[in-house]
Design brief:
44% of the residues lie in helices and 13% in strands. With 313 residues, the protein is of the alpha/beta class.
């Protein structure tokens, strides 16, 4: 199906699957959170991490769908340790409740995968009156990471194992608004473009990981933070655009990755020994890649950090 699958320095390519990039890796004893785990690459990421022995907590908006995924995984992998907890990234109250419940559960946290997302939605505001794509894709994950960081730091210290934070961004970060992040116009309906706003939120994922990596390094904590492009994948993310959605369903199998390939880079960055000690980087096709100039702008990353901090207060 995927004609251009030349292997990169890692030994993997765009056609590598999540199972292939984690072959032989033992995740026993690790605890991971995967947001948006009830469909698409979130489900496959959960399944493969569980297959490798990790205890996975799925952060899901729809608990019924989450329980169905959990049952399917345990049926396939009887030894799998999978739990589902309610999490709506577009609501700060929901994020705070999830983090509070997780932190008080006494579970360790080695891996945080900020995967959930919405794509190219019509202009809408979140429950906190923030443009929906920015609120869901970036701000919810920013707050979640912030609230779970102490647990991650404690786990890294106690276990002497490197913690990993993985932001699932997109190559679409290159197609944000011209200025990158519209700090003064986040909620501007008149200048809103559904695709540019999506690009903005995905650029924010990259910048968040970069500034987080800098802070963690400064603190001398054994936790890395990276972002990635999973590839163009045939999933339900396209549901808000009828024309694109129908094209995806008719042509997708010829030009897009399947879900197993789409989850590969996430699982690679979360588990592979090749990524040990690597932080503040951008990955694609299970190899090191490069974000665009906005995505490498440390001043922009710091400005976004401060802006986001003000919004979550």
């Amino acid at each position: 199906m995927w004609p251009f699958h030349r292997k990169g320095p890692s030994g993997f390519s765009s056609s590598s699957t999540a199972e292939e990039v984690t072959q032989g890796i033992d995740g026993t004893g690790l605890t991971a959170i995967v947001t948006g785990a009830s469909s698409g690459i979130g489900t496959e990421t959960t399944r493969v991490l569980a297959l490798r022995g990790a205890h996975v907590v799925m952060g899901v908006r729809n608990m019924a769908a989450g329980e169905d995924v959990k049952k399917a995984i345990v049926k396939e992998i009887p030894s799998a340790k999978v739990d589902a907890m309610e999490l709506d990234l577009s609501s700060m109250a929901s994020v705070r409740k999830f983090a509070s419940d997780f932190n008080s559960s006494g579970l360790p946290l080695n891996i945080l995968i900020n995967n959930a997302g919405v794509m190219a939605t019509p202009f809408m505001l979140s429950k906190d009156n923030i443009e929906l794509q920015f609120a869901t894709n970036h701000l919810g994950h920013f707050l979640l990471t912030n609230l779970l960081l102490d647990t991650m730091k404690r786990t890294a210290r106690k276990s002497s194992k490197e913690g990993r934070i993985v932001n699932v961004s997109s190559g679409a970060h290159r197609f944000s608004y011209r200025e990158g992040i519209r700090f003064d116009q986040i909620n501007d309906k008149s200048g809103y473009s559904s695709w540019a706003a999506y690009g903005q939120s995905k650029l924010a994922n990259v910048l968040h990981a970069n500034e987080l990596a800098r802070c963690l390094k400064e603190d001398g904590v054994d936790i890395t933070a990276n972002s990635l492009h999973p590839g163009a994948i045939s999933t339900n993310l396209f549901r808000h655009n009828n024309i694109v959605n129908s094209l995806v369903h008719s042509l997708g199998r010829f030009v897009l990755k399947n879900v197993q390939q789409g989850a590969a880079t996430t699982c690679y960055v979360a588990l592979h020994p090749q990524v040990k000690g690597v932080s503040g980087e951008f990955f694609s096709d299970s190899n090191l890649s490069k974000a665009n100039s906005h995505g490498r702008n440390m001043e922009l990353a710091k400005k976004l950090w401060d802006f986001s901090m003000n919004l979550i207060r």
